[in-house]
Amino acid sequence: MHISAKFDGGNIKVIDAEDERNIALEIVKDHQSDFYQWFHFKLANARPTEHVLNIVNAGNSAYADGWPGYRAVASYDRVYWFRVPTEFDGEKLIISFTPEYDSVYFAPYSYERHQDFLHRAQLEANCQLQVLGETLDGREISVLKIGQAGEGKRVVWLIARQHPGETMAEWFMEGFIDRLIDKADGVARSLLDHAVFYLVPNMNPDGSVRGHLRTNAAGVNLNREWADPSMAKSPEVYLVRKKMLEVSVDLHLDVHGDESISVNFVDGCEGIPSYDQRQKTLEDNFKALLLAITPEFQDQHGYDKDEPGTADLSIATNWVGELFKCLALTIEMLFKDHDELPDDRMGWSDQRSRILGRDFLTAI
Ligand code: ZN
After folding, report:
1. What is the pTM of this model?
2. Is 166 a catalytic residue?
């Protein structure tokens, strides 16, 4: 048996792999940070016996509340991803698994897939792939501009994966963008008559390739950088913010995943100093539309509301809402499975994230 995480997004340290019945693994912390939860590795020469993989430091990870009931994501062909049950004893996350083939991956979404996606989208006539600048590791911060700016046109921004371990956010962007560029889709065509879209499918490519949960190459949580970003420690935010200031924002959606809460929800900017009835009405209307469109969205459970005037303006949604006085929402998706619409084999999956992305287009 052989375990490797030497590929983009890979994260695991092998402590002991002598006995396949008692393998000890550790998740590696984000560089210059104490955050960890994301793991991504390959188990090879594994068929056909049962393997017991103990992630021994799971109990001290960033969101240990997320482990009970968690099912790991695995694939033999790196296209079809299925769920593998785990147990959590408060300390170790235990994956007991008998592979059907020789080699199996745990956890998806590579940097190469990200590039494939950007380059496929740019082939559309109304789509531009723009590079805003460089990350600390020298990767591009890319934005897809879809549609044409013009008199009276709204400017819609979607950003995803500020937290790189929340890969469901980029699957969501695939669904959203594939629909937006579909010339046979009347909703998309009508939207493009009224709006131009700026879409950042991956805000944190360095963290993604490094196998981080929550931070960039300098160990910085990008979603606490919006009030005062710098090229020295958060160029990703600095560059996207600069573009927003240049072209403006009429609607902002920031796509994430939450480890613990077993439903999809949105979180608004009700705590910003200038929050008013207009912003509340926009938010209420948008949520009512989503409720009508899909049972995968709900508005009962989510984060506690900020008290008026107490919002943290270093968070993207709050900073955008305050500056541009627009509808600004954080979207939180599931890591595990939807309580009311469970799927035993797949859980909350790449496909469901993509479909939810398409549904948000309808609501817009
Ligand atoms: Zn997040």
Report:
1. 0.94
2. no
